[in-house]
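This part of the workshop introduces the protein records we will be handling. An example says more than a description, so a record of this kind follows:
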Amino acid sequence: MPVKRAVHNPSAIYFISYTCYRWRHLFELTQGYDIVYKWLEWLQKKGNLVLGYVIMPNHLHVMLAFPKMEKPLSSFISNGKRFIAYELVTRLAIAGQLNILSEMARGVSTSDFKRGKRHQVFEPSFDWKRCYADWFIEQKLDYMHDNPCKGNWELASCREDYEHSSAGFYTFGRPGTIRIDHYLDVLEMGIWAE
C-alpha cells in the first residue's frame, strides 16, 4: 500500500519495498548496492534491526524492526531514499549518463522542483506491510529471497547465491555484507506484538 499517511507505532516489524524511477536499473547501472548497505547500517546505528533484504537492479525489499519508533516510518524511508538518490545521481553524473539524468529531471514535479529537488530517482511512494505474525514474516522473507531467481531476472541459479540478499544467512547462517538479526530472535523480543 502506498504511503499517504504517517505510520507511527512504538515498536513494529515492517516489510518495505520501493522502486527506482520508471523501473530503471539504477542500482545495477551505478553499482550502487553499497549505498543501500550504508543506509541500512545507519538505521542499525540508530537502534533499528535489519531482518532481511534483497537489492535488485531496480528495486529493493527490506524487512526492518523498529524496537522504539521515535519518528514516523515515512521519515526513515524518505531520509533513506534521499540519501541513496543523492549518491546515485552523483555516480550517474560521473559516469556521464546524461540521458538518464535528463529523464529523471523531467520527472520532477513543479512543486518538488520549487523545493529544490532536481531528479526523480525513485517512484514517489513506497509500499509497506506491518508484520504481525511469524508466518507472515516467513512469507515476506521467502518472497524477497526468491525475487532474484523468478520471472525474467535469473540473477542467480539459487536464491542463496545472489550476492545482494540475506537468503544465505537464513539458509546457511552465512554472514553477508550487513549484519542481519534473525526474525525468530526479534520475535522473542516481543517487537511484533500488538
Remarks:
- Residues 52 and 166 are 5 Å apart (CA to CA).
- The first strand starts at residue 12 and ends at 19.
- The helical segments are 26-30, 33-45, 73-94, 98-106, 110-114, 134-146, 167-172, 183-188.
